Amino acid sequence: MTVVGLLLAAGAGERFGGPKALARDDDGTSWLLRSVQALRPCAEIVVVLGAEADRAAALLPMSVSRIRADDWAEGMGASLRAGLQALGPTGHDAALVSLVDLPDVDAAVVARLVGTATGPGDLARVAYDGTPGHPVLIGRDHWEGVVATATGDRGARDYLAVHEVALVECGDLATGVDVDTR
Predict the structure, then answer these.
(1) Taking CA 181 as the corner, what is the angle to CA 159 and CA 124, rounded to the nearest 5 degrees?
(2) CA–CA separation, 40 and 110 (whole Å)
């Protein structure tokens, strides 16, 4: 059972004031690098880039694969489609999809979700005090369906709404709140 970490970091961050892949905390911590570190429990890490892709790619360690979503401006759905399509030829059983703007989601959250993976038919997502959030574990059997329905900023939301998804409680580890404004 292999799980690849798929980090979506392609957006322009219009409400935020710039690409979140280039954002830093007040102490200088890179959001992109923090998000990559959170995915370390995964067998491999792949980052989907778009806006300012070259600048963001320069921040990444060589061990991290990069994918460019040419239609990134369409929204998160385009990034998710690009990532899952690029993973198609790999031997991974599942993709753990995370977002670059989740400051308190760390490796402990990812490890708990990865620990629930059993096979390519899996669909699971983290919950924070019972509320579904990110990251989301998408087994290979679901990749084609997610790609077919991922549009705009909805990502896999429509697909997940009509399929049984296991919730993995992580409210004791993080809030899972995403940051949309500075």
Answers:
(1) 25
(2) 8
* pLDDT, tens digit, 9 for 90 and up, residues 84-106: 999 999 999 999 999 999 999 99
Residue type, 59: L
Contact 138, 84 (CB under 8 A): yes
Any residues with CB less than 8 A from the CB of 132 and at least 6 apart, and which? 125, 126, 165, 167
In a domain, 157, yes or no: yes
- First vs last Cα of the chain: how many Å apart? 39
DSSP element (H, E) containing 54: helix 53-57
Q: How many domains does the chain have?
A: 1
Entry pTM: 0.96
Q: Which domain holds residue 78?
A: 3-169
**111 in a domain, yes or no?**
yes
Residue 80: which CATH number?
Answer: 3.90.550.10
| Integer-rounded Cα radius of gyration of the chain | 15
3-state secondary structure (DSSP) of residue 57:
helix
